[in-house]
Structures are given as C-alpha cells and as structure tokens.
Amino acid sequence: MAFANFESDDGAVLSEINMVPLIDVMLVLLIVFIVTLPVVRHAVSVDLPQASAQPSRDKPETVQLSVDAQGQYHWNQEALTDEALQARLAAAASQQPQPELHVHGDRAVRYERVAQAMATAQRVGIRKMGFVTR
Q1: Is the pTM of this model over 0.70?
Q2: What is the pLDDT of residues 12-21, one digit of tens each?
Q3: What is the CATH number of domain 62-132?
C-alpha cells in the first residue's frame, strides 16, 4: 500500500492512501469468484430408489401385569395363579407383533415375586418389558 505525501499551500504535509492497488485486488477476487462459482454449484444427479412398501401401522397391545401387596398376580386387572400367568405369558410371546409387558409392583410386595414374573416372561420369550412406577 502506498502513501502519497503532498504539501499543501500553507506548508502542511497531507498523506493519502493510494486506492488503486486495493481496487485491483478486489476486481481480481471478483473475477475469481465469478469463474469458480459455476464449478462449485455443479451438482451430480443421483437416481435414488423409491420405497414401495407401506409402513406397518399395527401397534402392539400393552399388557399390564400387576403384583399386589399379597404377591398375587393380575393380568389387566384379572387375578391369576402362577401357572395361569406362565400360560398367558407364553401365549403373548407367540403373538405377532408381540405385546409390551408393563410390570406394576406394589410397594409392600417382596421383590422375589416381581423377579419371578420377570424370569417367567424372559423364559417364555417376551422381548419388551418395562416397569411402571408411581
């Protein structure tokens, strides 16, 4: 960048910036951007396959398995014995899509009863199990 020094009529020195090199650089950059912009914006067209299958809208049912304070099992509010629970869990495991099992345990029940129900569900093949707390 060049500075030009001029003397005014009263003898003071005036300094000005020579703008010509700055304008030259700006014009060169403008030309470079104009030339490279079409290259950058050049896109490759890709033919992607379209999905033809419709997504399944079947939502599996939810089974509420409750264990009350006395250790009694309840399948959707219906009381069950241990053998009936195993039969219901086996029937639910064979369904397609498999229902989700939500386990509710009473605060006063021994954890052993809840663990037995979970072990039975795992043994017969239930894959989706969750706990419901309050």
Answers
A1: no
A2: 776 778 888 8
A3: 3.30.420.270
Map out the domains of the chain as residue ranges.
3-37, 62-132
11, HSE (Cβ side, Cα atoms, 13 Å): 0
Burial of 63 (0-12, 13-18, 19+ CB in 10 A): buried
Task: With CA atoms as reference, report the closest residue to 66 among 97, 96, 94, 108.
Answer: 108
Buried b (16+ CB within 10 A) or exposed e, 100-116: bbebbbeeebeeebbeb
DSSP tag of 133: -
At residue 104's C-alpha, the angle toward residues 102 and 109, to 5°, is 150
- Give phi and psi for 131, each to the nearest 5: -105, 140
For 44, the token pair is 């490759």
Structure tokens at 79: 């009381």
